[in-house]
Amino acid sequence: MRPGPRRSLSHAEILAAAFELLETKGFDAVSVRGVAGALGLTPTAMYTYYPNKDALLSGMVEQVLGRLEDQATDAAARPATTTAVPAPEGRRERVTALAGALRSQLVDRPGAVGLLLATPLDGPNARRFEERLLEAFADAGLDALAAGRAAHAVRVHVLGAVAFDAAETARTADGSQAADPASTVQREPAASATATLWDELEAFPLGDRSRGFADDATARFEWGLDRLLDGLFASSGAD
Amino acid sequence: MRPGPRRSLSHAEILAAAFELLETKGFDAVSVRGVAGALGLTPTAMYTYYPNKDALLSGMVEQVLGRLEDQATDAAARPATTTAVPAPEGRRERVTALAGALRSQLVDRPGAVGLLLATPLDGPNARRFEERLLEAFADAGLDALAAGRAAHAVRVHVLGAVAFDAAETARTADGSQAADPASTVQREPAASATATLWDELEAFPLGDRSRGFADDATARFEWGLDRLLDGLFASSGAD
DNA sequence: ACCTGAACACCGTTCAAGT
DNA sequence: ACCTGAACACCGTTCAAGT
């Protein structure tokens, strides 16, 4: 047996191991030591494939964006007629499909948001995604500056929304530490705005309308995106 | 001299040291060991003030949001008339002032975005900020659900935009590594969307309209926020 | 080109102990 | 209550060396 020490891994194999770690143990587990260990390598061997950890993460982001690309083209092609015409006024639908595909790609993959926020987002697939958005807004009549800003606003909304959702679910699904009911503060009820003596994290009554925040995350996202698109597409023709 | 070993620091002193570190050495330098060292403490002494690192970061976030609170009330009171009437249709201006205050608070403080993204955002000052946004949207006629989603969309836009800007400036202002001109790839020009062989980070021509992205970050933010608010405020009365 | 082993300078956190 | 010192189980990265 013993397949020999000269494995010569491919980037695809390394990224597969990295995603395996990301999905099973979370973003923090995606360390160069961690994926090296999962591949039966020494940490330093990783540096013959990627110059540093950021390059590894960028490679992962590119792969995520690549999968998204396929998914979005499928989704955009689906509701159109079977003729060759690419859905005349489907510009807004194209943006919605693109944004939704990115979001679903990220929420499917716990910890993937950290990836997108930790990395420059300048690879070929990232640029292709950007190009798709620009195209849709240019088709709608926005000039180059406005289209660039509109595409940026959409990216910001998707990534920001997923980051918020991830922070929320990370807090509620945190199994490592239970709430501590032994609260001993409560003094000074009306502190100034710049007060810093707040140190009991679980002492809040959790407000009025905070229930049902996790289950309608998708509806909340779509509603917000729709409002944003209302504003963005109106900025072309309504003057 | 020698003031004795029983210092008994206040939370304010600890947070001041933490912000000092954040501004001078960046987000990664804000470690419990780091701020302990800056205070002349042993790392373990920090655990008598905060149960863990997240609690420290939450304390910092609260202080940032507290400063923002004061700033936003000033800004909102400024453009109104000097009479006691709080600007009748200034709901949109209030949201703009709040969002702008949060953004400026974050861009002034390099690394502070990491804070907001790493922390649950559930402290008293965070809730007060949320309440202000809800108030403005409720005044505009949105029902509770829509107002909550609108407030969320604004938060998402501000934090997402600052996170993007931070990633951009971190890349351009990165003094530790220069671009490597010795590129040896270039083979396989039309790779599939799921290809993963992209490993030369600097090999891109940096596209068509990518110049002038950093200097108009504020204009881009304000434009996107304005479009979002167009959509959000239109969702109340236009049907 | 790919890989190992030792090392450097870090992390967050816990535990036993001192005052 | 506040603090120290030692320790555990990690990080990213570099360097010298082997094949």
Give the percentage of residues in beta strands of chain A: under 5%
Helical proportion of chain A, percent range: 55-70%
- Chain oligomer state: homodimer
Unreliable stretches of chain A (pLDDT < 50, length at least 5) are 81-88, 173-214
End-to-end separation of chain A: 74 Å
Radius of gyration from the alpha-carbon trace of chain A, in angstroms? 22 Å
What is the residue-mean pLDDT of chain A, rounded to a whole number? 76
- SS field, number of helical segments of chain A: 8
Give me the secondary-structure category of chain A.
mainly alpha
Q: How many DSSP E strands of chain A?
A: 0
Along the chain, the helix and strand elements of chain A come as: HHHHHHHH
Largest sheet of chain A: none
Shape of chain A: elongated
**Which pair of protein chains has the largest interface, and what are the residue counts?**
A-B, 67 and 67 residues
Outline the structure in words:
2 copies of one chain form a homodimer. By secondary structure, chain A is mostly helical. Chain A contains 8 helices and no strands. In chain A, helix 1 packs across helix 2 and helix 7 packs antiparallel against helix 8. Chain A is elongated and about 60 Å long. The N and C termini of chain A lie far apart (74 Å). Chains A and B meet through helix 1, helix 3, helix 6, helix 7 and helix 8 of A and helix 1, helix 3, helix 6, helix 7 and helix 8 of B. The structure holds a DNA duplex (19 and 19 nucleotides).
